[in-house]
């Protein structure tokens, strides 16, 4: 869907992006992760041709981006940024309708789409449709920004630190909602962030960048091995192994009870993840916990061995 091959962007002597190659498959979220100034935004902007590359090839749907009429390319790519945000003198409805209007959709279809998108991003239609950006909180404005990028249903979305200006609680909420929306929409996404936990929560694959160079590109479970390991390990930190456990649902690792059910001191709901299980076992000094389904049935156990085995596989 998106393929970068040996892409470079040089500003005089500065190598903002240096021989970067990666592929993002259809329906996949690729997170570009790295410190400020490592070339994440530059990479994103070369994909929708806001910036020309110095050399290398960028293909979208098998076609070189330079061979597209630029308007057509941008129309198939939604773009969400933190700071450019919404037009302040336009209502939420008007902001979201911009691209549909450009595409000359009729009023009824446009209005229906706006309502559908507001619902999708979790904003009450009647309450928000006529508001102005100045009347929205940071989190609400970002939701409208996401709705606007989705308006014409582009297959590709580029997101540049979209939740960066939002407070931690709303940020976590937006991340969860984004994952939920993506499960429904299956967009091809390139998501830029400097936040390791955000990358972990959202990415199907993570590309770690440093000084314009891709240091490793892999699923979060595999990112600690391969690539420039020394850099990657130092950047992610040893506690990455603990963070990664949040990606493993308990339900996938259940084993049958090794003792009578009444012997278990701990019990976790089946919707938890291995990080919850480890935290609970460590804090209570237990080697295992029982797991209970939504309807109250006891399903089996999670034990320390399982968690350690999963961690070993991630290494
Ligand atoms: N228009 C420009 N002219 C010169 N240098 C630039 C320009 N835009 C970005 N840079 C430099 O390129 C590097 C990468 O920038 P950027 O892609 O914005 O980083 P990130 O998004 O990872 O924070 C930085 O060193 C930045 O200062
Ligand atoms: Mg940036």
TrEMBL record:
The keyword ATP-binding applies. It is an enzyme of class 7 (translocase). The keyword Nucleotide-binding applies. Gene3D superfamilies: P-loop containing nucleotide triphosphate hydrolases. Its EC number is 7.6.2.9. Keywords: ATP-binding, Nucleotide-binding, Transport. InterPro entries: AAA+_ATPase, ABC_transporter-like_ATP-bd, ABC_transporter-like_CS, P-loop_NTPase. Residues 2-236 form the ABC transporter domain. Belongs to the ABC transporter superfamily. This is ABC-type quaternary amine transporter. It comes from Formimonas warabiya.
